[in-house]
Amino acid sequence: MSQENDDKKPTIGTDPTLPATPDQFSARAQLAEPRGAETSGAEKPGPIVVGAAAFVLVLFALSFWVRSSVHGAGERIEHPQADLQPKVAVADNSEVAYCTPAFKTVLQRVLNSCGLVGTESRRGCQPADVKTFASISDDDFNALFTPLKDRGAVILFDEGKDDLDEGAKKLLEEKWEDRRGARYFFVVARASKSGTADANRALSHRRANSVMLDLQNVFHDPDLDKQVGLLWLGNEFAQLSKDYCDWPSSRDAAHGGAKATEKCSPETVNRSAFVSWVDCRL
């Protein structure tokens, strides 16, 4: 009886439900253990925790952006013209007094529009050009150049003429040689009210060219076209008042003008070309 029971007891290696060898005990034990049993220390955060943290970060960034946008909108409402105002040049403390932001703004427009910046050839500006780019009244345009009284001079012409007399050439050449490191030399030619607008525009253009030709003939500077800015205003824009009769001119006694005794008036002072180096830096 006992022998039969012994025969019925399963032996290692014969019962498929038991390990065949002692080594297989550990293998089966490992299979029975949970997957996370080998991991020591704190458990890794689950996907819910990671997602919640990402959501908080996105929400914070969005809140910051909305706050900045609202603040910017408030500034534009309080100061609606702030973004529309053009950037103006700032006067350097080391520059001369007349280099104000307003003067430098107009100067930059002249340089850009009259061919001294971004081009290889001289072009110049006529009245319509000046009215367009300067965006300034006649009186304000002249007022900008008023501080140049001691730096510049008025080259005078006979009525209807565009040739330079000896006094004009002498004064012009003195002013050119008094450069003092300046970069741009301006010639602003005009004509008086006598005659038609078209005729005076053409006359003032010839007067500006006479100044340019004299500088070319005397100084032979290869960079002259890049240094001289020509404006011819005819009688259409920025006529000079009698106050400019006090400026240094080619017909005052100091320069031995052929007609030094001629009485100055708004009519005569506008038969002219204003010349000057400009000391402002841009």
Task: Tell me the distance between the termini.
Answer: 121 Å
Helix tally equals 10
- For this structure, what is the CATH homologous superfamily of the largest domain? OmpA-like domain
The chain-level mean pLDDT equals 76
Helix-and-strand structural type: alpha+beta
CATH architecture of the largest domain: 2-Layer Sandwich
Query: Major β-sheet, in short?
Result: 4 strands, mixed
E-strand count: 4
Q: Order the strands across the largest sheet as they lie in space.
A: 1-4-2-3
How many separate domains? 2
Order of helices and strands: HHHHHHEHEHHEHE
CATH C-level label of the largest domain: Alpha Beta
* Quaternary: single chain
Q: Which consecutive residue ranges, at least 5 long each, have pLDDT under 50?
A: 1-6, 24-41, 80-91
CA radius of gyration: 44 Å
Structure description:
The protein is an alpha+beta fold and 282 residues long. The protein folds into 2 domains: 1-85, no CATH class; 101-278, OmpA-like domain (60s Ribosomal Protein L30, Chain: A, 2-Layer Sandwich). Helix content is 43%, strand content 8%. It has 10 helices and 4 strands; from the N terminus they run ααααααβαβααβαβ. Strands 1-4-2-3 form a 4-stranded mixed sheet. Helix 4 (101-113) crosses helix 5. The longest helix has 32 residues, at 47-78. It is elongated.
